[in-house]
Amino acid sequence: MTDDRYLKRTILKETVPSRYLAEGERQLRIFLPPGYNELLSYPVVYCQDGEDFFNFGRVATSATKLILDEGLEPFIIVGVDVDKKHRTDEYAADGSRHGAYLRFFAEELLPFVEERYPVRKEPEDRLLAGDSLGGTVSLHLALEYPQLFTRVISMSGAFFASSQAVIDRNYDLEWLDIYMIVGLQETEYETTDRGVHDFLALNRNAKALLEHKGARIYYEEKDGKHQWGFWQKEIPAALAYFIEVE
What Pfam families does the record tag this protein with (predicted)? Predict the structure, then answer.
């Protein structure tokens, strides 16, 4: 039976206006930790596919358990929603909306959150997280804005050729700390618009490129398919890798 302490949580919704996004705005979900106090300051986790991270990934429940039971420092979570029709265009390195999405995230979303919530503003206190193409765009945000983001969680990242080319263009990635997991049963996954891909091979290739550039990498291959049933179970360990115990 679920402990009621895990269900008593605060999740707010916000709308960020945007000059860069075609629709002119983007919806957010904001998780405030147990004992939230606006006079304090908090690390912050930015999740791509915000709706899925909260509904399928149960990230708010995992965060609450980690804070209450494991003694992790309280942290805020910002889930950034996406219109699935435009997801690939925004998240993929060769997507038609990719550049605009990166600029929205760094130049509009970040200031919006930091003006309204007591989140810390050092790169080591900001964490980017995503699954599949969400993991990919999280890495691209860090590569494009290393002065803002240095920490990434990538679950089964969709590191297609265009993404690997972006990694390869970067000379020195010693500043990057990335947590990567991928499922052993992801060798023949059919994407909605890019055919069948071997995500295990894509992640092994990306890992080799990142290692060559000097990035700090936690990498693990585990039993799992390209779906939330796998990723949901991995979220707590990924968060605990970056968020310190009080």
Answer: Esterase
